[in-house]
């Protein structure tokens, strides 16, 4: 899980962190993946709220910091797969559709000139 090792948890204060991508320069805003805050709950169980600034995930709640980091690693993996070159799409030979001659797809010259 290389993407997990690529993450850095930067403390911002008591109960607040920034999740960053180490592969991006820390001075670059693109290094910030999410802001995380520990939120109080009635049952005194740990709860974390993550505000995602990458990946259009909005705000999510988690019962552990590990859950937040796993989601961040998934986000990095998804963005890495989109960054690869697209796979080539098989295409038909010049002339259009397979099995149909080019002449069959064009109007006759006599019809084009008449008119």
Architecture overview:
With 115 residues, this protein is an alpha+beta fold. It has one domain (2-83). It has helices at residues 2-5, 65-83, 102-105, 109-113, and strands at residues 7-13, 16-21, 32-38, 48-52, 59-62. Strand 4 (48-52) and strand 5 (59-62) form a beta hairpin. It starts with a helix and ends with a helix.
Backbone CA Rg: 26 Å
Backbone shape: elongated
- Look at the helices and sheets and give the structural class: alpha+beta
- SS field, number of helical segments: 4
Strand order of the largest sheet: 1-2-3-4-5
Measured as a percent range, the helix fraction is 25-40%
Distance between the termini: 68 Å
Biggest sheet details: 5 strands, antiparallel
Count of strand segments: 5
Q: What are the main properties of this structure?
A:
115 residues, alpha+beta, 28% helix
Offer a concise description of the structure.
This protein has helices at 2-5, 65-83, 102-105, 109-113, and strands at 7-13, 16-21, 32-38, 48-52, 59-62. The chain is an alpha+beta fold.
Describe the SSE topology.
Layout (H helix, E strand, L loop, with lengths): L1 H4 L1 E7 L2 E6 L10 E7 L9 E5 L6 E4 L2 H19 L18 H4 L3 H5 L2
Antiparallel strand pairs: 1-2, 2-3, 3-4, 4-5
């Amino acid at each position: 899980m290389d993407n997990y090792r690529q993450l850095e948890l930067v403390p911002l204060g008591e109960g607040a962190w920034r999740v960053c991508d180490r592969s991006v320069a820390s001075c670059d805003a693109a290094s910030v993946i999410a802001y995380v805050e520990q939120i109080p709950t009635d049952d005194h169980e740990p709860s974390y709220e993550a505000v995602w600034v990458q990946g259009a995930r909005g705000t999510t709640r988690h019962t552990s910091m590990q859950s937040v980091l796993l989601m961040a690693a998934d986000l990095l993996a998804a963005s890495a797969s989109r960054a690869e070159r697209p796979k080539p799409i098989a295409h038909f030979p010049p002339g259009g559709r397979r099995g149909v001659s080019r002449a069959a797809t064009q109007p006759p010259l006599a019809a084009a000139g008449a008119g």
